[in-house]
Write a structure and sequence with these properties.
The complex is a heterodimer of chains A (112) and B (335).
Chain A (H helix, E strand, L loop, with lengths): L2 H28 L4 E2 H10 L6 H13 L3 E8 L2 E8 L1 H24 L1
Antiparallel strand pairs in A: 1-3, 2-3
Chain B lengths: L1 H12 L3 H26 L5 H11 L2 H6 L8 E3 L1 E4 L4 H25 L7 H27 L19 H20 L5 H4 L6 E3 L3 H24 L6 H23 L4 E3 L7 H62 L1
Antiparallel strand pairs in B: 1-2, 3-4
Helix pairs in contact in B: 1-2, 5-6, 5-11, 7-9, 9-10, 10-11
The chains are: A alpha+beta (112), B mainly alpha (335).
Chain lengths: 112, 335
């Protein structure tokens, strides 16, 4: 592996780590309104946070297992879709999480 | 969408069973929505090749399923040797290999009337474990470096996936030397008989099977060479391999079961008990240690797999013919 490749791989790893936390927050915020996976992914992409379905769906499942989301299967456009929304627990946790993120953001801006 | 359904079935195979149906339902809806969007943009239904290209971009079924698994076991010693995508297949292959190895060793020793102790299994079993682990470590490295290609696409999708050149080259590297070895055997019997070549020679029956087996090997190498230059001839791989393996099965069957004497005592040596016993041992090893397992692999594994991989090609050919027939028939029907 050349040094350029190594740096690129390292950057990719760091970028993914950085994105991971932000994505969770973005998903929780977007799911204050009920959506199904495909529209959620499109909304995230429209807001500049593209995410492939291979990352989004496992994340949604994990958040649901953690009790932050609830989901239900419903028919729409003649097709069964799984709709997700923030649970009561998710709503309760989102508030301090957003405050935390804003705090980090302010601190980072200060450092920069 | 037949291709999409096949793809989803392939993904499902690698998912945790308890959640697989739920995950597939959701994934199916997402992929269908994306394909519909593409169709709307194109203003026409997508062709099979376009759907296959889209699915290829989406990722190979094993990798897609891996993202849903949280309990993915892998072989890691400091760094990842065999990743979670390959690890289940590694375990299956290792188990099958070890069962075959133990069975072959036991059969050879029983035929040779040699004492069957635990020690005789240790070396062959260790060799199998080391070789198979190294093969999978290599595959893992390739997958990490080139995550996109599908080395073993599901049968239904395989007609649309060009044969990876690396796959054909790897086959050539494996079978090229085997062909050269086979060509050299009549001139250097040591290559087949080892040190026993000093006292034994190939039985006359070899002359009947030498050329057919040579043709089988030549066809095998030729298919790989053609696939390197014509990767889009996806039908060539299953049809040629089916033919090669079926022909190989027939040749080996007659060689193993009809002509049990493969080597005899060499002319200058008297047919004494010592050399007869040596010939018997070598015959037993060749029949049950080399040709027998090979026959089993060709007949029992390769032929059914390649026959299965031929079906989608046949279906596509038939569909093509039916389509062509109906398009030529309908105008005349209208008259």
């Amino acid at each position: 592996m050349t040094p350029g490749n190594e740096n690129h791989a390292l950057f990719e790893n760091l970028r993914l780590e950085l994105r991971r936390g932000s994505l969770i927050l973005a998903v929780l915020v977007m799911l204050r309104t009920e959506q199904y996976g495909y529209t959620l992914r499109k909304s995230l992409a429209d807001h500049g946070m593209p995410i492939d379905e291979g990352t989004l769906y496992p994340l949604l499942r994990r958040l649901e297992t953690q009790g932050l989301l609830v989901s239900e299967w419903r028919e729409e456009d003649k097709r069964n879709k799984r709709f997700y929304r923030l649970s009561a627990e998710g709503k309760a946790i989102l508030k301090p999480l957003l405050a935390e993120w804003q705090g980090i953001n302010t601190s980072l801006n200060g450092i920069l | 969408m037949e291709i999409l359904d096949s793809y989803l079935r392939a993904v499902k195979r690698y998912l945790p069973r308890a959640q697989s149906s739920d995950i597939i339902k959701e994934l199916s809806d997402d992929l269908r929505s994306q394909l519909e969007e593409k169709e709307t943009a194109a203003g026409r239904p997508l062709a099979d090749e376009e759907i296959a290209a889209f699915l290829r971009q989406h990722g190979d079924p094993m990798t897609v399923a891996r993202r849903y698994r949280q309990d993915s076991p892998s072989l890691t010693i400091g760094w990842e040797l065999i990743g979670p995508e390959l690890f289940p297949m590694y375990l299956i292959m290792l188990s099958v290999n070890l069962v075959i190895t133990v069975a072959c060793v036991a059969i050879v020793f029983l035929i040779m009337h040699a004492p069957l102790t635990l020690n005789v299994f240790v070396f062959p079993v260790l060799i199998q474990i080391v070789v198979l682990t190294l093969v999978f470590v290599g595959l893992n490295l390739v997958r990490r470096k080139y995550p996109q290609p599908w080395y073993y696409p599901p049968a239904e999708i395989s007609p649309m996936i060009p044969v990876p050149r690396g796959y054909s080259i790897a086959g050539l590297i494996l079978w090229g030397p085997v062909l050269l070895w086979w060509l050299a055997v009549p001139f250097v019997p040591f290559l087949l008989l080892g040190s026993a070549a000093a006292h034994l020679q190939l039985a006359p029956t070899w002359h009947r099977f030498y050329v057919p087996l040579l043709l089988v090997l030549l066809a095998s190498v030729a298919q790989r060479v053609i696939s390197i230059f014509r990767p889009h001839w996806t039908w060539l791989v299953p049809f040629m391999r089916l033919l090669i393996n079926a022909a190989g099965t027939l040749v080996l069957y007659f060689l193993v079961f009809k002509s049990r004497t493969l080597v005899v005592v060499a002319d200058p040596f008297p047919s004494t008990g010592q050399y007869d016993k040596l010939a018997e041992s070598v015959n037993g090893t060749l029949l049950w240690g080399v040709l027998g397992p090979w026959l089993w692999i060709w007949a029992g594994i390769s032929v059914p797999i390649y026959a299965w991989y031929c079906l989608p090609h046949l279906r596509r050919m038939l569909r093509g013919k039916t389509g062509a027939a109906s398009s030529t028939v309908s105008p005349s029907q209208g008259k």
